[in-house]
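Researcher: Next entry in the queue.
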Amino acid sequence: MAMTDSTGSTWRYRWAHRQNDRRQRAFRAADEAWRRRDDELRRLRTLAGSFHGSTEAGAGLPMELGPGEVVFWTLPAAQLVEVRHTAVLPAPELTVDPEPPVLRPRRPEGVKVVDAGLAVLTNRRLVLLGGRGRRDWTYGRMTGLSHDPGAPVTLIQVLDRRRTSGLLLPTGAVADFRFKLTLAFADAIEQRAAVVAQLDELIAEHEAARPARPAVLTPAQARVSTLLPGGRRTVAVGVALALIVPAMLFESDPPVRPGPVCGSGSRRRSR
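Model: Structure for this entry, 271 residues:
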């Protein structure tokens, strides 16, 4: 049996049910997105505070690690790319991107693949062990670094090499590579604490922006205007017309009724 209010109507209850359902669905979607971002921020914060690479990860690699050098990340399916003509790249920054853009598996125009092989990221350098040779990017000689926002490409400029080069990676490996490259570079310049502080600030800002659960609407909050197709606007237009039409009728001239016409040519009544 449908519930009714004191007037015997059920539309107020239907309105409250629809509004509460819509508001709850919107809240659940926003809360789910908020939780996903919160989980990712805290995961990155844990890595930034505790991950420092390992020497064991370098076992079996076809390269020799230097004293104190540890491995942060490896990928066997990396491609070496070069750019013949390019502007000066921005200096490397310790910026964390917790929401990386969606990347398309494409090679940007002007970027040429010249080799492929195993990529190794350490706390001292980035190395590609390719079929044609080895390419090193030492952090101490790095002058420019750019992550393509739309493609899985990272370009690097160093002091002892004229041509800009870098890596083209599978899209699924890009986010982890870019974050761990940030950590490795931060360690090289002794600025790991700056990355941790940045993540703490992002977490605090995100916590402050947590979606609030909406208040439950009651049937008493329904308005008669919700019954009309145009809502309050329709009511406003109706009220305006109700005021304008009588005013127009009042201001218009009254109609002229036809009457007898008197003139000099009228006949006199006969005696």
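Model: The chain is about 35% helix and 20% strand.
Researcher: Noted, moving on.
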